[in-house]
Design brief:
A hairpin with a 2-residue loop joins strand 2 and strand 3. The strands form four sheets. Strands 14-13-15-18-16-17 form a six-stranded mixed beta sheet, sandwiched between helices. It has a five-stranded mixed beta sheet with strand order 6-2-3-10-9, with no helix packed on it. The chain is about 25% helix and about 30% strand. The chain has eight helices and 18 strands.
């Protein structure tokens, strides 16, 4: 089990003990975004108690707020950007966590506090003004005003030893899956454009871009007009020990006016169903990343290991998908501004972060015309690559050139086309 933990847990973990239990039905009732006197302030109105984790991401600059066991109340609207906040996005994460992402026009150090009111209160996050560098914050938001007799929160840092594979300095492997193929044309546009042709062209362009990057290597699940069974695409990615799997598609609906791109990761329900299948077939299952064979474990331990791995994989998938979605927003319209979750079969590898990119709607005549052009295909491929590059710069897999460069504090030069 120790060999798997570094793959699914952070190098430093904060354990919270002895604080009031969070309520399971916490609701976010409203958002308010204000900007004045050089300070931008986000107020989140909460009903019930939860915890919060506030941290920053770069390229582009963002502040992320995770609220475990929280959900949006019906009818809540997300305000438009204001002050240093260009955009506010809200989406669900594994474990019933509600994630708020503030995209900024420049790097900022967030300051947050909670004003308790009855059984809820207001979470206030301030940006700008008096700045003070802060580490990621994990604090308890009480369900009620904390009484003096209640125990205080304690944070205990726990170190997890890093495991570096022997093949130090290896390339990051990106498995690129061109949707459909062969006897399965996929969706067909009004002018006869077949999805299988568009996805293969974009996948090849993405593969070329990945191959041009020092420290990265591409693998195509299909590199021609032939059909590959969905589960075989997962097997192919696992056989080459892929660090990430991205499936390229072009969406289609009856209404020709609908357009824009979207990105999907595996849903929790899909993960649960897939876990049952993996456990049932574990005698024939390959090793999980980290070197643990399910077949050698008892039912309870095997289930725990698989659950840990899948939870970490979905979380990594979500972060990478968010980065890709932000770059796709610069190429064309985005149909769904938050990463979506669904039970697509090709996303069900338990230990490889995976996502499905709906590049555009081939049923929309304007987007169909764009999808046919090499220039637009390249633009989509570059947007996907930029998102992947951002993700791996921040989260380099152990033993890779990216991990070595990050450890030395040096930059990896990006190849130009």
């Amino acid at each position: 089990m120790t060999t798997l933990l570094p793959r699914v847990l952070a190098a430093s973990i904060l354990i919270l003990v002895a604080f009031p239990a969070a309520q399971a039905a916490t609701q976010v009732r409203a958002f308010q975004l204000r900007a004045e006197a050089g300070t931008t302030e986000l107020t989140v109105d909460l009903q019930g108690g939860t915890e919060r984790k506030v941290y920053t991401l770069d390229n582009p600059a963002r502040v992320v707020i995770d609220l475990p066991k929280a959900r949006l109340a019906k009818g809540v609207t997300v305000p438009a950007g204001k002050g240093v906040v260009k955009r506010l996005r809200v989406g669900s994460q594994p474990g019933q966590t509600l994630r708020l992402v503030l995209q900024l026009d420049s790097a900022q150090s967030p300051r947050s506090h909670f004003d308790a009111v009855g059984k809820g209160g207001r979470l206030i996050v301030s940006l700008g003004g008096a700045r003070q560098a802060q580490p990621p914050v994990v604090q308890a938001v009480p369900a009620e005003a904390v009484l003096p007799s209640e125990p205080a929160q304690v944070q205990i840092p726990v170190s997890v030893p890093a495991v570096v594979p022997a093949q130090a300095g290896r390339d990051i492997v990106v498995a690129i899956d061109a949707g459909h193929g062969g006897t399965d044309p996929g969706a067909i546009g009004r002018h006869g454009t077949q999805e299988k042709d568009v996805t293969l062209a974009i996948a090849r362009a993405l593969a070329r871009r990945v191959e041009a990057e020092p420290g990265m290597k591409a693998y195509l699940t299909r590199d021609g007009d032939y059909f590959v069974v969905l589960r075989d695409r997962i097997v192919k990615a696992r056989n080459v020990k892929a660090d990430l799997f991205v499936s390229v598609h072009a969406d289609s609906v009856v209404n020709p006016d609908v357009g824009g791109s979207s990105v999907y990761v595996l849903s929790e329900k899909g993960a649960t169903n897939e876990a049952a299948r993996w456990l049932a077939e574990r005698e024939n299952a390959a090793d999980l990343k980290g070197g643990v064979k399910l077949a050698k474990q008892g039912n309870q331990l095997a289930s725990l290991l698989l659950d840990l791995t899948q939870t970490a994989s979905i979380g990594s998938s979500m972060e990478a998908a968010e980065r890709i979605l932000s770059h796709l927003d610069h190429v064309g319209d985005v149909r769904k501004s938050q990463v979506q979750q669904a039970g697509f079969v090709v996303l069900k590898s338990p230990d490889i972060p995976s996502m499905l990119v709906e590049t555009a709607y081939i049923s929309n005549p304007n987007e169909e015309s764009k999808l046919r052009t090499p220039g637009h295909q390249e633009a989509i491929a570059n947007a996907i690559f930029s998102g992947l590059h951002d993700y791996f710069r921040r989260n380099p897999p152990d033993g890779t050139l990216y991990a070595q460069q990050k450890g030395r504090g040096t930059m990896i030069a990006r190849a130009t086309r």
